[in-house]
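We store chain and fold; thus.
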Amino acid sequence: MSNFTEINPLKLPSVALLEKHKLPQLSAIYFAIAENGEILYIGRSVNLASRWNGHHRYLELKEIGNVRIAWLSCDDESLLPQIEEAMIQHFSPCLNQTLIKYKQPKSKLGKPYINRLIKIARKARGSMSQRVFAKFLGVSFSTVQAWERGDSIPDIQNLAKIAERADYSMEELFGDLGMKPASEPSELGVILRQINKMPLSEVAKVVEAGAARLAAAPELSGNQAKVS
């Protein structure tokens, strides 16, 4: 589409702000629209659902009430800045370029744990650039930047992805970050991680040993019953 300003945001697909969890995971320009049809805010994201998971304008828009989030999907991410700029110039949304009324609640993690999370996130990213890592996780580039600055923490889904890439179990990660009382990693978790790294020939031996153990279980149970 050559003239982006011909788009009518009121005719685009949308969801209520309070149902933002229903937003799709796609690259898009989004519009925060008031009940009277006024365009309040316009932005862009390579992953609409993730962007609104902790949007900096959410509390402000929630206070206004009955706001909807509409979106215009865009397969070519490189066009997002151009389309966003054209839309902002055309609609002049009242909240763009204004100070944020409410700041998002800060993480309850202390500074040492935030620093630890930054190191873990960077370990998970490895040799990837922040932009490539963001695309891999399905979040925006700015989101990854915020994580590595310690300005925000990943949600539970992204924590799971980061833990996996950094070779952590979720139990180990939470314990390391103080998100619950630290505890020793479960033996089962360690064993499963070791199995995942084994050659298939070694895995076959483990399976064979497990099958033999299960086959012997009834006999073992009977002997234990006699002893007791």
